[in-house]
Amino acid sequence: MPMSNDPHIPPSRPSVRALLWSRPSTRGRWAPAARAGLAFVLPAMTLLSLGFDRNSVLAALGSFALLYGERRPYRIRWKVITTTGALLVATAAAFGAIGSWMGPDESFARESVMVGALALLTAVSVFGVNALRLGPPGPFFLVLVGGVAVIVCRAGGSPATVVVCTAAGAVAGLIVSMAPALWRPHGPETAATEAALAESERFLDDNREPSRRHSVAASTLNAWSVLHDAAQTDGDLAHRLWLTHHRVHDAEAGALMAPLPRPGILRRLRFAWRLDSHATVTTVRAAIAALLAGGISVVAGLGRPDWAIMGAVLVLQMGPDRVRGAVRGAHRVLGTLGGLVIFAVLHALDLHTAALIVVLALLNVMIELTVTTNYALAVTFITPLALLMGASPQPLSHQMTSRVLETLLGVALAIAATWWVFPRAHRSTLRSDDEAARRACTDLVSLAATEVPASVTMRVARRDLQWQLLEAELDATDSANDDPPWARRYWPAHAAVRAVGYDALSACWRAGPDGLVPEPVLNQLTSRITASRLTE
C-alpha cells in the first residue's frame, strides 16, 4: 500500500489493478512446494498399492497440514503439523459421518443440517485463526476438507476410509516437512531474522520514517517469536537482532535479554473476545455469508452447497477490507473458471489412478507456490483438486455450470457482507484497538516509574503494548481502505496513540534493562497519552 510521509495522513487505497494482476512471487517457495507434492504422492501411492484404488487421492486432505507448518522452526513445526493434522482428521470424520447420514437422496432438512455444520466450522476456524493471528493459509482448508468428506460419503464412500486416507496424508506431511531439519536445522529462524534485519536497515536508511515503524515492529516481533520457538534466544542470530533492535531505538546495547515471545493462546483469545474485534467481526461476516450461500444453493438445487460456502470463506477468511475483498472475490471467480478448464481436461482424459495421483501432486506443488501471493492462481489449482477428490455422477456440463453459479453466489454474498454486515465496524474496531493500546501504554508508563525494563511485569507490559499497537495498525489500514473520508478525520488520533506507544517502548530500550526511565521522559509520555484522548 502506498505510504504517506506525513504520519497524520492515512495511506491511500491500493490500486485495484495492481492487486488484481499482481505477479506471484515464487522466491523461496520451491522447496516447500516440492514438499507439498511429496506429502501427497507418497501416501497416495502407498494407499493405492494397498488396494484403496480411487480413494487414495483423499490423502490430499491430510497433506494440507504441511502448509501450516512451513516457515516455522522445527522445534515446534512437528507440533503445529500434528495439531493441524488431527484437526483435519477430526473434520473428515465428523463431516464424513454427516455425509453418510445424509445419503445420496436430496433432503432439504438434511442438507440444511450440513450447511449449518459447515457454517459452524467456518465460524470456529475463522475466529481461531484471526484471534491467534496465524496468517496464511487460514481456515479455508478445514472447510474444504469438511465439504469434500460430505460429498464423498454421500456418494457411498466410507467415513472410515476418508479418515484413514486423511490421516495417511497428515503423517506423510509431518515426515516430509520435518526432513529438512537433517541438513538445515536452523533455516526457519535464520530466514525470519534476516528478514527483520533487512526491514530495520531500510527503516534506518530512510531516516526512521514514522510510516515504516509498523513493518519494522511486525517483522522484529515475528523474528523474536521464531527465535523463542526455536530456543535460540542466546545465539548469534539473537545477538545480531538485539544489536539492530537497539540501533532502531537509538539505544546502547547491553547484555542480551530477548523480548518476550508472542502472547500465549489464551491471552490472544482474550484480547479478541469482544464484539467489535477484528476476529469477531470477520467471524460474523463469514458465518452469515456461509449460511446464506449454502442455504440458497440448497433451495436452488445447485448440488454442491459446500462449494458456495467455500467461495464465501475464501474471500472472508482473513477479514480483508472492501478493496482487497473485492479483488479476492474476482480472483476466486477467475481461478474457478481456469480450474474448471483443467478439471474438464482431466475428466475427459479419464486417467488411471496412478497417473491421476501424479497430476494431483503437481497441483499441490502449484498451490503451495501461489497460495500466499496470488489467489487467482491458487484457486485455479485448488478447484480441480477439490472436484476430483469429490467426484460427482452428474454430467460434466451440469457440474461446471453449477460450480460457476455456486462460486458467483458465494463471492457475491461475501463481498456484500463486507458492506452490509456491520458496515461501520471498522470505526469501532479501530477506536477500541487504539483505546486498548492507550491503556497498555498507560500501564507501561505507570510501571516504569518504579520498575526497570527488565523486570517480569515490565517485560509483559512492553510485549502487550507492542501486540496492541500492531493490532491497531492492521485495523487502521482496513479503515483507510474501507472509509477514506472518516479515516482522514480520525487519523491524527490514531497517529498520536501510535507515536506515544512506540516512543514509550523506545524509552524503555534507551533506559537499558536495569535503569529506570527518567522522570521527565515519563512525565512527557503521560502528557501525550492524556492529549491523545482529546484528539478524537
TrEMBL record:
Q: Which UniProt keywords apply?
A: Membrane, Transmembrane, Transmembrane helix
Residue ranges of the TM segments: 40-68, 80-101, 113-132, 139-157, 163-183, 337-363, 375-392, 404-422
Kindly name one Pfam family recorded for this protein.
FUSC_2
Q: Which organism is it from?
A: Gordonia neofelifaecis NRRL B-59395
What the entry lists under InterPro entries is as follows: Memb_transporter_dom (IPR049453)
Q: What do the Gene Ontology cellular component annotations say? A: membrane
Can you say what this protein is called? Integral membrane bound transporter domain-containing protein
Annotated compartments: Membrane
Membrane topology term reads: Multi-pass membrane protein
Ranges in coiled-coil conformation: none
Residue ranges of every copy of the Integral membrane bound transporter domain listed in the record:
292-416
Q: Principal place where this protein is found?
A: membrane
Reading the lineage from the top rank, the first entry is Bacteria
